[in-house]
Design a protein that fits this description.
Elements lengths: L7 E5 L5 E12 L4 E8 L11 E7 L5 E4 L4 H20 L1
Antiparallel strand pairs: 1-2, 2-3, 3-4, 4-5
Length: 93
């Protein structure tokens, strides 16, 4: 059985320090017309419980992403529902 290599990205924090994250999944939300990404810190990727971060994003070219915070409660509700659905599907497989 071959191990699937996960995609990883580096996200700088507000102090400019870079942190490595593993991409869980990306998804589009028709209601907002936006694309979102869910990531976990790479060092927590194999833990039983992890902190999941979600961002709205836009691809700026083949290798760069622009990440944007999710600010409205309505948008968070939509994203949270999608995250729960995708997590439930992953648990079932």
């Amino acid at each position: 059985m071959a191990l699937e290599e996960k995609e990883r990205i580096i996200i700088p924090d507000e102090n400019g320090e870079e942190h490595l994250f593993e991409v869980l999944f990306t998804f589009d939300v028709d209601e907002t017309g936006q694309t979102y990404i869910a990531v976990v810190p790479a060092e927590q990727a194999n833990d039983d419980e992890v902190e999941v971060y979600a961002f709205r994003y836009e691809e700026t070219d083949d290798t760069d992403l622009s990440l944007f915070p999710i600010e409205s409660d309505e948008e968070w509700d939509i994203v949270e529902e999608m995250l729960n659905t995708l997590a439930d599907e992953e648990d079932e497989s």
